[in-house]
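Students often ask why we bother predicting the structure of a whole assembly rather than each chain alone. The short answer is interfaces. A chain on its own may look different once its partners are present, and contacts between molecules only exist in the joint model. In this exercise we take two input lines together and write out one structure for the complete complex. Read the inputs first and try to guess which parts will touch.
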Amino acid sequence: MNKNITRLWFTGAFCMMQALSALGGTTEDFQFFQEEAKVVIATQREQRAEEAPSIVSVVTREEIERYGARDLSDILRHVPGFEFGGDVFGISGLEFRGIWVQEGKSLLMINGITQNELGYGNANFFGTLPASMIEKVEIIRGPGSAIYGGFAELDVINVITHQAANLNGLRVSGDVGVVGNGGFSRYGNVSAGSQTDALKVAAHVGYGSTVLSRRDYADFFGNRLELNSETAFREWQHIITEASAKNLTVRYDRTSIHWGGQDAFAMIQPPVNGIEVEQLNNYNDVTHLDYQAKISDHLTLQPLFEYTRNNTWSFDFPSAIIGNYQGSGVTLWRYRGEMSLNYDGPGSAQIRVGGGHLRDEVENVGADGTPGLQLSSDPTDLASRTHTSSTFGLFQYVQQIQAVGVTVGGRYEDTSFGRAFAPRAGLTYVHEAFNAKLLYGRAFRIPLPWQAYSRSAAFAGNLKPETANTSEMELGYKFTPHTKGKINLFFIDINDPIVFQGNNNVYVNFGRIQSEGAEAEFRTDYVRAGGFANVSYARPGSATSAGFVTPSNKQFLASPPVKVNVGTYVRSGIFEVAPSLTYLSPRAGQSSDSANSGILGTTRYPALFLANLNIIARSVAKDLDVHLSIDNIFDTRYILIQPYYGAHAPMPAQDRQITLGVTWHL
Amino acid sequence: MARLFLRITILSVSLGIFLGTRSWAEEVVVILSSASGPYQEAFEGFQQGFGRVVPSYNISQDEPEIKRDTKVVVVFGAKAASRDYPQSVVVVYGLAPSFKIKPGIRFLPPVKVHTQPSAAAVVKKIKEFQPAVKHPAVFWVSESYLAYSQEFQKTAQALGLEAFTERLSGMDRLPDRLRSLSGKVDAIWILPDPLLVNAQSFAVLKDFSWANDVPLYVPTAGLAENGAAIAVYYSFKEIGRTAAQAAKQALAGPGYPGDIFPERSETLVNLKGAANAGLVVPSDALKRADRVLP
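Now the answer. The structure tokens for the assembled complex follow.
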């Protein structure tokens, strides 16, 4: 008996020791990794989002697929601070923190290549930049002029396409959808890529079309138009290529949009001989070369050259409306050469110095054959071709000292329109789960030669760069490895913004725009479920000029003061179900009375909810994913409001859409 | 007289041996990043391999003293490896996964003792224990593992496997990526990447592994003991022994290798972890394992 008890005891003790040693071993192993991680984090060169000297958002491929984004606009709607407004010629533009960022205040890139058209600096959303080609979107919610120059005044959006290493083969995707009452949407993309030690190549080819809405549009002047595939179509095409070998990267991109406008500046245009003549197109052709020359372990020299050709917003039928000088006779070019030196200093310091030259050329011949450019205030000083240029230098110093990061930098640009300087400074602090940022940046927007000299508007050769000062603060906390939250405050002050005065048909530096507010985000991710929520609040500062806000100065035109996004997902087996909801607080737009009388006045548009549902089935067959999504489930009557007093009635958009899509990975 | 002469001889020889030993020992110094178990085990292995007592320091407690005649500094852990050392010494460093001393910084090239078996060795082990494997996956966060992942892919391809390798932007991306790979991978090799491996991420990986029948292959015995299927690893002592050999080679003069993989890797099979992940280990592979946990 005693022997048995003794044996039992030893067995028990042995098991206990094994268990404890196992536990101890595991605990020690994790402790070892934890200690090593501290050093790696302190010494690695790449910054994490918490350490970046900007308010950043990264939307990954998983999130894009999860919530069934159709294009970049769906992606941006889920990001704090962004919404959309409507403008002339049927353009859907971007608002950020309440401010209308069309015309060069928001930099849009694909793989680091500028996509803003070169006439006004605009980008057109809804039905463009389809999600099927996008791997992730990196967004700087704040000024980026110190690095990126002219268009990066308030934010920077970089769309990254599927990378060669992730593709390693072929990815084919297609979506078909029903939009509203009988509208039709279809998008297809083929991405191919391969990466070896010696060579990396990737290519993306795609086409798509949709309709902005199937509802009726009524202008402020008693005219009515049915929106359909002839009056409100959106067509998109892209060819995006990249090849890298031996530190040399070559890219060629061609993107093009073709769409139907409705009412020129404000009034619905009747068809001419049965043809809806307000059809516009824009293409963007870019060839880009850059080289990473490793001078030493610490020093890298990067020259780059980029050639862009595009055509601003051009009318297919220019003589029919106002597009005499905005048709096929328009070509714009940008030549960009830049050299930067990057130095990895001792103790995780990073220094970057660089400089370069930009040349913007414009050729404009009217549809009637007359020169399309006026080069001075003398109306006889006409030409078909001209150019502007700018020379710039930039500097950035980043130093990480244990938990604290310091960034100082700036960009100085000497342009044909005057000089501009954009300094920036940032302080970041990361300690375990907590992070904080204090940021200041000055940014600018340089006028474009088209705005100054095109005869589609009055001569504006004395335009000056507009400047914006942005101050931001962020606090973030990782509650658990799966759950984190952050909140940030901002204040933006734009001086002498470049605005179009419709009464005088001219671009001028005029007024002031201030925006202040807060954004908060929360997200949680587990293997089988998770979600996110974010809130954005923006209101005009007290010095904001009247042309951008309600008469009470309490809110910006077109932009909702409050936006709330909530999304969640649940995974079971091969299925993932992800509902999401967006709340837009009441918006304001110019009233019909105001449009007809010229006296400033607004209409209040009620708050609305946009509810979506996306269901993905992964690997239903070998390498095949299928998704079904319903956007705007309750067919809320969403409208695009013009964010200034331009007499443009709100445009219906984003009807309920049911989409079926497949993605095949080869 | 003879007795006196003998005593003096013995004394001299002893003194000579003592001084010689001390001189040899001060030519080599060992520095540990901390007093925790893995670093201590590595140091014990070093002592066994080197065959002599050498001065050692734990930088979390004392400041190392590098004398003028020190020729080799052996460091365990990235904290110790990232310090500045005189340019006249050769730095041999181990137990610093994902950390690399840039070659140009030191006049005498450093020697890295790798913490995990080569990618080729790991792929072969996975194939040995899981003959039906087709799509092994590797995740990492630290930039320094890119070359390893490419080697992994190359070896996998040569064996007729289709490897999936991806660098994550952070550990918090892991659940998303695992979700999207369900049904597409059938084995996961966890690199000893400090930016990826911690208790929480391991729990996520284990959960995924057990729910989706995707066996986990891990680089330390402790992780296998905690539920992964199989560990393919160098023991901390083996890393220390290898560092000792590297130190001897560095003392012998130039021409020593800059990267060393320890000679002897070990495998530990956790039968319960394997079963939970749907893996039936072939009996001949099981027999070759160094340790088997029931």
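Check your guess against this: Chain B touches chain A through 56 residues (CB under 8 Å).
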